[in-house]
Design a protein that fits this description.
There is one protein chain. The chain has 2 domains: about 280 residues, tm_1862 like domain (pyruvate-formate lyase- activating enzyme, Alpha-Beta Horseshoe), CATH 3.80.30.20; about 70 residues, Orthogonal Bundle (Arc Repressor Mutant, subunit A), CATH 1.10.10. Helix content is about 40%, strand content about 20%. It is built from 17 helices and 17 strands. The strands form 4 sheets. Strands 9-10-8-7-6-5-4-1-11 form a 9-stranded mixed sheet, with helices on both faces. A 3-stranded antiparallel sheet has the order 12-13-14, with no helix packed on it. A 3-stranded antiparallel sheet has the order 15-17-16. A hairpin with a 2-residue loop joins strand 12 and strand 13. Helix 2 crosses helix 11 and helix 3 runs parallel beside helix 4. It is globular. The N terminus is likely disordered.
Length: about 425
């Protein structure tokens, strides 16, 4: 899992693990981005209807080894806990279903399910199927729901993938990170470049028609030539979706220690910006839409779960350390898997922290997050959601950046201009209330 200077979130989707948007943290601010406009399925649905639905995130914290850059709630060396953890997670899914029930007692509709980690592909297909059955029992899962599972190359076999597809997983997100063997070793990844290709080929053979590949840039020792070759090889696999992240050095990781010691040096900001802009041009030419700062998709393959976060819609995160945003509250679970298992065995809530999100905070976060997408803020939906026009809410806070040409507005949309995408900090900071 990675964090990116272009997103500030971990992995492909901004998963609710270690990622509370209780306030607009500095690492949310984009430094240099370019996007093209595109349409998404989610923006065509009335916002009030979407607010009555939910997305589900299931955190699977197990890893064979912990990568050198990772500061997320993941653990190596605890694979024997997989079965008791799955049992605990089934109980929490049941609890969450009751929490989210509609006023008439019927299950709440869920549009997406995302298995994140960690390495969810380290669960058996049988365990994954049990968790999906628990979700279907507790929620009214859409018949065409997007159901994503994160996987690492080297943990996948054709047999396993066929079983996952049969169980109901219909979208695969593969943590490739690089096609350079030396860079993979630097990151602490245990797979090889060949295993990335093998994983994609096996997924195709297992009838997966929606595949995401994650890659990182700005890595220690990474050159533009490395980046050219990685993107060429990625596109040769014809994934429907690509997530590209720039490395951020997080305190408490080996990379942080090595950076302080001077033994490694990540790519500088100018190099990262060059890599990002080249990727955008290369992927756009190949038919991909940059629908969110770090995510590109072929038409019709935008990650619906991803868009839940970028539109600030309700979600429930289940598992150790998972975050939720639902019914005016943001809350998170205990971090330690053993403590999580202990609480759920006793049928107790694993919730550890909670805060109430007030109306101004929700409006600010919604505006900030939606401006990170290619389409920007849909002004009629904003007014419908909050019973207040965006112009009235923001007042004169954006006048300076509007005059500087950082925003562009149509009758119904407000989005960053091309120049604004390069100077997004200036816009985002001014969205904060005085």
């Amino acid at each position: 899992m990675t964090r990116a200077y272009t997103t500030g979130w971990g992995q492909e989707c901004p998963c609710p693990v270690n990622c509370s948007i209780a306030s607009l943290h500095p690492f949310y601010i984009t430094k240099k981005t370019t996007m093209v406009t595109c349409t998404t399925q989610i923006s065509a649905v009335p916002v009030q209807q979407l607010l009555e639905t939910i997305s589900l995130y299931l955190h699977i914290p197990f890893c064979h080894t912990r990568c050198h850059y990772c500061d997320f709630n993941t653990y190596a060396g605890i694979l024997p806990l997989r079965e008791p953890y799955v049992q605990a997670l089934q109980v929490e899914v049941e609890q969450a279903g009751k929490l989210a029930q509609r006023p008439d007692g019927t299950p709440r509709r869920a549009r997406t399910i995302f298995f994140g980690g960690g390495t969810p592909s380290l669960l058996s297909a049988i365990q994954t199927a049990r968790l999906l059955r628990a979700c279907r029992s507790a929620f009214a899962i859409d018949q065409d729901a997007e159901v994503t599972l994160e996987a690492n190359p080297g943990t996948l076999t054709l047999e396993h993938l066929i079983e996952l597809r049969t169980a109901g997983i219909n979208r695969l997100s593969i943590g490739a990170q690089s096609f350079d063997a030396v860079l993979l070793k630097t990151l602490g990844r245990i797979h090889t470049p060949d295993e990335i290709c093998q994983a994609v080929y096996a997924a195709r053979s297992a009838s997966f028609t929606s595949i995401n590949l994650d890659f990182m840039f700005g890595l220690p020792g990474q050159t533009m030539q490395h980046w050219y070759e990685t993107l060429d090889q990625a596109l040769a696999l014809h994934p429907e979706h690509l997530s590209l992240y720039s490395l951020i050095i997080e305190e408490g990781t080996p990379f942080y220690t090595w950076t302080q010691e001077g033994s490694i040096a990540p790519g500088d900001e100018d190099l990262c910006a060059d890599m990002y802009e080249y990727a955008d041009e290369r992927l756009r030419a190949a038919g991909y839409e940059n629908y969110e700062i770090s995510n590109w998709a072929l038409p019709g393959h935008q990650c619906r779960h991803n868009l839940t976060y970028w539109h600030n819609l309700p979600y429930l995160g289940m598992g150790a350390g998972a975050y939720s945003s639902f019914a005016g509250r943001r809350f998170s679970n205990v971090l330690a898997p053993l403590e999580y298992i202990r609480l759920l065995r006793a049928r107790r809530s694993p919730e550890a922290e909670s805060e109430t999100v007030d109306r101004v905070q929700e409006m600010t976060e919604t505006a900030f997050l939606e401006l990170r997408t290619a389409m920007g803020i849909h002004l009629p939906s904003f007014e419908q959601r909050f019973s207040q026009p965006f112009a009235q809410f923001v007042g004169d806070r954006l006048h300076t950046v509007e005059a500087a040409g950082l925003l562009e507005q149509t009758q119904e949309w407000l989005r960053l201009s091309k120049r604004g995408r390069l100077l997004g900090n200036e816009v985002f900071l001014r969205l904060l209330p005085n």
